Amino acid sequence: MRAVVQRVNGASVVVDGETIGEIVGEGLCALVGVTHDDTKEKAAQLARKLWSVRILGGEKSCSDLGAPLLVISQFTLYGDARKGRRPTWNAAAPGSVAEPLVDEVCAQLRALGVEVAEGRFGADMKVSLLNDGPFTILLEV
Hints:
Layout: E1 2-15, E2 18-33, H1 40-52, H2 62-65, E3 69-73, H3 95-111, E4 116-118, E5 126-140
Parallel strand pairs: 2-3, 3-4
Antiparallel strand pairs: 1-2, 1-5
Helix pairs in contact: 1-3
């Protein structure tokens, strides 16, 4: 699993003109990609990493501050554009594999006590955020 994680001061996701997920104030926005060999165990590992990574203000984590997360599925994180001008998506898991694993990341985060907002799997989403720093990292498990 792979996640692009941004430290934010507010973030939201809109589908068909309706806000379906939003966090207010300091937190993290995580774009999560799934590949073919990912498992529930990797989803749990990613959730723990998102909960504990110390990238918020004062080198704090979401667990330290009780900060929220916005989790958005993003198959394009496994795009490969090394050859030609059009990326391939061969490394991205199909929706039937990816969707339950992104759901598992969210479930594991909630089990840790995190306030979690979500995007909608497979939807055309409009994501807005205020990147705080800017601060963006790539996590892989």
